[in-house]
């Protein structure tokens, strides 16, 4: 018996007419090494049928508790059919990057059918150069970024020849309880909820200075520090900078439409900048994003005079739960982005300093405030109030300006049905509360692959923003100075890629 956690349920109930809450990504594939030189829907379905037992989240569907009295349960779908979830389409000529991005954006807009397991795959043929693409999405109530990467890894191989996978062993099936057991559990949890909510409140108050909006309230830092002392926490934590998010074009009510752009920068370039300035790869990614956002906002006369505020998802899975592949084990660091700093070198160093402070604070007191806040709300209220609260957040002061996420991946080539994976461009969620833009990146085989998702009412030219990211990389490389003489390499790095990019205004 497996029930959604309060955080999982929050992701489920955050969906509305304008918000689809799924984790997704686009894999660009070279099928020249596959059988017959192409990847087909039939071969993909066959692979999934052989390995579906390695990805439990893909076999489960939701069962709701009557009247929404408790969070839903997961159960094995007795009518599960892989073929129902796998689709195929072909791009019109010429099949370029902008056409792929447009097709993917339309798929990303659509919510998943809750009558079935919450995932879809779309094989997209006709990409230039004989390539193909695979767009896959899974509901965020079922997976987070790390478990999503693990789910994808179950389908991939180290060579064009698919590996042999052991057949599934007999194991206990995940089933939802009966109606009487559901209702009894709902009554019990409703009776004990006040006590659990009080415990969660105490833990959340200890993190009050790290929670969006709450951190800006008068006395938030003092109250948080006092609560930590009362709870017996003796570590002195670094003070966080102001987390007051300015109003930007990214923030406000979003529409149901989506736009997508993607591209890559060489991971070796990111690492060279990181080594030169004594920073981490994550720090450089935040500096890159800060520079790109600054350029985009400045072009439109909408650059705030204080930093943008980003939510940065962080995995909090512990070693004993490392194999759990259903549900979310994430928190978030909330950090300023130095978009208000004009000098590129100072902006880079400020981004590094801000992220080091945020990481020290998180390491000293691993914050689980998203889980604690959602645990404080009774299940029936969560289902009814979440969409309204998110829309209300969009009308007031924004909690954050956007989400920036960086997921580490393997640095060697992978294959799907014999087709080589050339790049993987992740896609995240947009909501009224978190803004009409998300930037997600995934490191793979020598490149850092960016996926940008935007609401067209908020960001009308998402390709231009991708162009600014690549310009920001050039700027950082210039700051880092000449590259050292290259050592002999076993394979070349992938070149920077992307779709249509407008020239920079003079």
Low-confidence runs: 490-506
- Which CATH architecture of the domain at 194-404 and 446-498 is right? 2-Layer Sandwich
Distance between the termini: 61 Å
Coarse shape: globular
Order of helices and strands: EHEHEEHEHEEHHHEHHEEHHHEEEEEHE
Approximately how much beta-strand content do the residues carry? Answer: 15-25%
The total count of helices amounts to 13
CATH topology of the domain at 194-404 and 446-498: Chloramphenicol Acetyltransferase
Write down the Rg.
Answer: 23 Å
Share in helix: 25-40%
Number of strands: 16
- Biggest pleated sheet: 7 strands, mixed
Features:
alpha+beta; globular; six-stranded mixed beta sheet; Chloramphenicol Acetyltransferase; 16 strands; seven-stranded mixed beta sheet; 506 residues
Task: Summarize the SSE layout with pairings.
Layout: E1 2-3, H1 6-13, E2 22-30, H2 41-51, E3 60-63, E4 73-76, H3 82-85, E5 86-90, H4 97-109, E6 119-127, E7 131-139, H5 145-153, H6 179-206, H7 220-230, E8 259-266, H8 267-277, H9 281-299, E9 308-315, E10 330-337, H10 344-364, H11 369-375, H12 379-395, E11 402-407, E12 415-416, E13 419-427, E14 437-444, E15 447-454, H13 462-480, E16 497-498
Parallel strand pairs: 5-6, 9-11, 11-14
Antiparallel strand pairs: 1-4, 2-7, 2-13, 3-4, 6-7, 8-15, 8-16, 9-10, 12-13, 14-15
Helix pairs in contact: 1-12, 6-7, 6-11, 8-9, 8-13, 9-10, 9-13
